[in-house]
Every structure is written in structure tokens, then in C-alpha cells.
Amino acid sequence: MALNVLDKLVNLYHENTISHVYLVETNNVLLCLNDLKKVIKQIFCVNKYEDNCTKCNICNLVDQNYLPSLIIIEPDGSTIKKEQILELKKSFSTVPVFTKENIYIIKNAEAMTQSSANTMLKFLEEPEDHIIGFFITSNLNNVIPTIRSRCEIIKAMYETHELNVESVNDEINQELLNLAAVYLEKLEVEKKDTIMYNRSILLGQINAREDVKKLFKIILIIYEEFFKNSLNLPNKCRNFDKFYFLNNLDSKELLKRINLITIFLDDITSNVNLELLLDKFVIDLGDLNE
Predict the structure, then answer these.
(1) pLDDT digits over 179-222, tens only?
(2) Rounded to an integer, what distance in angstroms lies between the CA atom of residue 216 and that of residue 222?
(3) Would residue 113 be called left, alpha or beta, if left means φ above 0 and alpha means ψ between -120 and 50 degrees?
(4) Does residue 242 sit in the same domain as residue 269?
(5) What is the domain extent for residue 117?
(6) pLDDT in tens, 1-39
(7) Which residues contact 215 (CB under 8 A, 6 or more apart)?
């Protein structure tokens, strides 16, 4: 798993052998970003770090994207602009207060323009002791060579959670598909007492971890099919009439949900509290709906 690769960064940090900048190639940028944030929490957590930590203020600030010493940059429109890098430099011009190091993450690093890359070079060529950087890309060959050549490259690849539409029709019983329809309608349409839906609707009917995982694979397929439909790509949305309410979501909203489900499916394979994981899912989905 990719997180095992990224976990090595925690050991390198505590051994004082971590590089000042990494270029991370991945097949899932959003999931990789989420795992890098876990690495950062493990490095700086003032307690003994645990998944879904709610005690440590540092962990809470990372989760809420409010930690001053962590800056995440993503494309503004289609590119990462020079002004974004200048703002990063300004923010990191002083020694961090909350943590020992300032950390920046450049998401979709291939979107950097030549101008923004040139502005970034000083960070890379004259590294400061209290700054660590990560560039995330889906294809390192698309990253500007002057950036790529100055980074230590690591790969963080994830298992794909494939379950084709035919297997939904042929192998998944109608009861489970109906459950997915009721559950998603409550979350996407009614949007009230969302935490209670996990207990009254979902866990009231299934509670085995593998069954919940199977249900969320179905939900992933449903979102993917509506995403294809939103882009006028070949799809089988006609098989999902019960999910008519998803037609109100545009491609960007559907893609965010696909990434959220992918993260959930990765997290559920680890030994975490199932109810807490489901609660986190509905809270994160609610944030998308706001």
C-alpha cells in the first residue's frame, strides 16, 4: 500500500535523514494528499499518534487545513501561478511557531508554469533547515525538468477498487442495492441527522466490515456512472433509476464524491473503528454539500 511507502518518511524524519523536498508520483492524487497529511500528523503529534486522533490540537489543525506551518497549493484554474509561490515564500519567511518545520505540499505539480517553477527554484536550490516540501503528480514526466531534477522521487501507488457494472447486476442482491439508494438519498437529499443514518439505516441492516466495504464499492460505481453521464461518456446509468437524485450533481461534485469513497475504501481495510469511519464519511460528504 502507498501509505506504507509514505510511512517511511516518518522514520526518516526521526532519524534526521529526511530530504528537504520530494516529488511523489501517484495514481490517486487526492488519496496521496490525504496520506501525506497523515504523515505530517505522525511527525508533529504531541501525543502517541492514532488514526482519527481527536486529542491533539496539531492533528485537528491539519485535518481542518488551519495549521499555519502547513501550506497546500493546488492549481488556480488550470495552472499553479507565480503569485501562489510568492505567497508561499512570504508565509515561510519566518521560523514556524506551532511545529519544528514549515511544510508545503504542491498538489498537481505538473500544473506549474515556467514562471511559477522559476520562482520556486530558490526554495529548492538553497534549502532552509526548517522547510520540507512535497510535490504530488500523476505523471512525473509532465513536471517541469528544473523542478523534477531537484527532488527526491518516490512512488505512492494505490490498489484500485474495481467492481464493474455487470457484477453489480449479476452478483449483488437487490436488497443491498436498495440499501445504497435509501442511504444515499438520505445523505444527498434530506441532509438531516446524517450521523444517525449510519446507525438507523446502514448498520441496522449490515454490520460486517466486508459487507459495508461491498456496499461502498457499489456506491462508488454509482457515482462513477453518473460522472460518465455528466461528461456525455458511455455509461449504464439506466440501471440506476433509484439514484435519480444524483442527476442534480455536476461533474466536479461527482468527482469529489468519487475521491471521498476511494479514501473510505482504503481506510476501511485498516483496523479502524467502523462506526467512527462511517461518521467521518457522512461529515466529509456534508462538507461537500455546503
Answers:
(1) 888 889 888 888 877 788 888 888 878 878 888 888 998 899 88
(2) 10
(3) beta
(4) yes
(5) 2-156
(6) 455 777 789 999 989 999 999 999 998 787 788 889 889
(7) 176, 179, 180, 183, 202, 206
